[in-house]
Design a protein that fits this description.
single chain, alpha/beta, 18 helices
């Protein structure tokens, strides 16, 4: 009973977990990191679930460890047949690792490791790197047993879950509205556009949190004037959910900054992804000014350099690691953090984009 494991859940179905654990003769204690945001709150919740409020009473403890030890000692009263071990479930386990000094984790694992008290601790989390968050003293008391649970359902079950999550229960106060709503949801699940959207999300992630976020964006379109969900609402929600943040940053750039992005796009193609510096970008921009355009002003070099530095501040470009601090900023090697498709998609939505700039971006290299 002293084992401890971190379960990585891509679908944290707590109800199913509780049913499994309740079949065993455990005293079940469930603590959620989203609600129990510090160790004192967590300890009060543990006391409530173990029904030890009367035992604790007005007692004053010198430390968290003494309080927890007293609670566990109170559970040991009785004979071997009537006593039951305690199973602690720490949901959103990674959040407990952010508590001050990780006191709760340390004491629970320390008790579990001592084998003096029949205690088991199970942590549930979606973070695969959770062990890196643990302090050394906590990690040393961890059994390093991990179970990874991956969703194995198919797309048909995914659509059924989509329908189930949106459907209203029979106990809904307005029975007529619930019936019309559920009929609309059934029709949605048969719509080809909706199926294509769900298939795209299913292929990218089977995580229920991803599905719930998509549904939240979709339901935000429901209003008195639009009482039902339409396929266009789901499409708009999908676009919002999969929105490219870097492409959105491009929409706020000046024409000069966008020209520098296009110049870097061409350099990236010429040198096959090799890094470049400001001088190379500036020369590419000058070629464009002299050869093809009458709609973009020929800015002075300091102004162009300022625009280049702004792109760096926006993290659209990054300096190469290991670059010498003594190198002049005009010659520091950088890489662009955008691909060609992101640039072209942003350019299509760019307001009042000069025709010469568009042709330069879409033209083949000379």
């Amino acid at each position: 009973m002293t084992s401890f494991c971190v379960v990585s859940l891509y679908d944290s179905n707590l109800k199913a977990c509780r049913l499994v654990y309740q079949r065993w003769s455990f005293c079940f204690c469930y603590v959620l990191g989203l609600l129990q945001t510090d160790d004192k709150t967590a300890l009060r919740e543990i006391t409530r679930q173990l029904q030890l409020e009367n035992v604790v009473g007005e007692k004053v403890f010198g430390s968290f460890a003494e309080n927890l030890a007293f609670l566990l000692e109170a559970l040991r009263k009785g004979d071997r047949s009537s006593s039951r071990p305690v199973l602690f479930i720490l949901d959103e386990f990674d959040l407990f690792a952010h508590h001050k000094n990780q006191t709760l984790l340390y004491n629970l694992l320390d008790v579990a490791q001592s084998a003096q008290t029949p205690v088991a601790v199970v942590g549930l989390t979606c973070r695969l790197d959770v062990l890196e968050l643990l302090e050394k003293r906590v990690k040393s008391r961890f059994s390093h047993r991990q179970i990874h649970l991956l969703n194995t359902f198919g797309f048909k079950q995914y659509v059924e879950m989509f329908q189930q999550q949106l459907s209203l229960p029979k106990e809904f106060p307005d029975g007529r509205f619930a019936e019309e709503w559920n009929q609309n949801i059934q029709c949605l699940c048969k719509d080809k556009t909706v199926k294509d959207i769900l298939q795209k999300h299913f292929n990218s992630s089977k995580d229920f949190r991803s599905l719930h976020m998509l549904l939240m964006f979709t339901l935000s379109h429901v209003a008195v004037s639009n009482p039902n969900i339409r396929s266009t609402d789901l499409l708009a929600a999908s676009r919002m959910y999969t929105m490219d943040s870097k492409a959105n940053v491009l929409h706020g750039l000046s024409v000069l900054e966008f020209c520098l992005i296009i110049a870097m796009k061409h350099l990236n193609s010429i040198y096959e992804g090799e890094p470049f510096n400001f001088e190379m970008v500036y020369n590419e921009f000058q070629k464009f000014i002299q050869r093809k355009t009458h709609s973009v002003h020929n800015f002075e070099k300091p102004v162009v350099l300022k625009a280049f530095e702004h792109l760096h501040q926006l993290e659209l470009i990054k300096p190469m690691e290991g670059a010498s601090v003594r190198t002049q900023k005009e010659y520091q090697l950088v890489k662009i953090l955008l691909d060609s498709s992101q640039i072209m998609d942003a350019l299509q939505k760019y307001p009042q984009c000069p025709t010469d700039v568009w042709l330069w971006a879409s033209s083949s290299l000379e």
